[in-house]
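Bit of a strange request maybe. I'm writing a small parser for structure token strings and I need a real example to test against, not something I typed by hand. Could someone generate the tokens for this chain?
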Amino acid sequence: MTANSAHLQDADIEFHGVSKHFGDVKAVDNVSLSVARGSFFSFLGPSGCGKTTSLRLIAGFEQPTHGDVYIGGEAMIGVPPHKRPVNMVFQSYALFPHMSVADNIGYGLRQRSSKPSKTELRKQIDESLEMVRMSGYGNRRVWEMSGGQQQRVALARALINRPTVLLLDEPLAALDRKLRRDMQIELQTLQRDVGITFILVTHDQEEALSMSSNICIMRDGRIEQSGSPRELYDQPINRYVADFVGKTNFVAGSVTQINGQTVCMKTGNGRSFFGMKTAGSPELDVGARVSLAIRPELTVVGSKASNAEDLNTDTAFQGKIRNQIFLGEHTEYLIDVEEIGDVLVLSPKSIESASGGFDPGEYVTIGWKNDQAHVLKDS
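Reply from user aminoacidic:
Good idea to test on real output. This should exercise your parser:
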């Protein structure tokens, strides 16, 4: 994901050593990246990590303190927003309430120096409405639309100008959970249909994982890790990434032995654990402070009488169920294990149906396979 000195032929967006300072605050700190043409790319991170500032640098609402921004291979330093081949969909949608849906969508085309004819404008508006599955809604008023419909109108207004890149500033934040999920699928489908680059800013890791082809996780103005959703989830390079992307159980300790990709660590109470190093992670030395990370869905739960062989795992711990949440496709258990503290376990319905499940207060055995655990440097 790091940009080279030469412009990448298949990149729509490039940052070359980009920094943005607001006084003493480094909102973006020496970031280099490349966004592939036709991809669905997300900036992911908590508030204040630099993701929104990065989006505004692409849009032209901010100029870098240092470094260069390129769109489609063209330098954008000093180029104002209205002259960049990008359009933006804001969290608030920023629709004009006094205009009809059709007038909102066609607004950008009407502002051009070479305006299309009324017939051509109507044709393009109708095509845009069809693209977002709202044919026949052109004469409606914005205030007559639901939240999801307003979002589609905002998308149609942005796409009618055929931008090289569409920027999405947390566009789903105002929607309820079910509608947000529906719109995630709609956005994915729309991006594939139109084939242009989408860049999303979000703090919602589920949203980024479900929609993106590539994700850039940011922290304090810098990139912690970039890659596909599967790479970030399965191969986090440090504890920060593992903690931010998905749910994870952590066991703190220090490295006692390294054998190739296998690492042995020991906790403060003297218990040893084995896990794997991840590709691209910082080098580990004996004595380094680390965390063993194991995903809840890779942790197995069985009856109190079970052992590691019964569970088909490499480890086995006794614990007491503190809480149980039935979530349909799986059951979520919070289990108090004396040696390591609270452990979250996601048990699939297929296993729950056979075992009958477990209740709060019940003693159980949990375990996992060593090659499914990661040893990560604390960051």
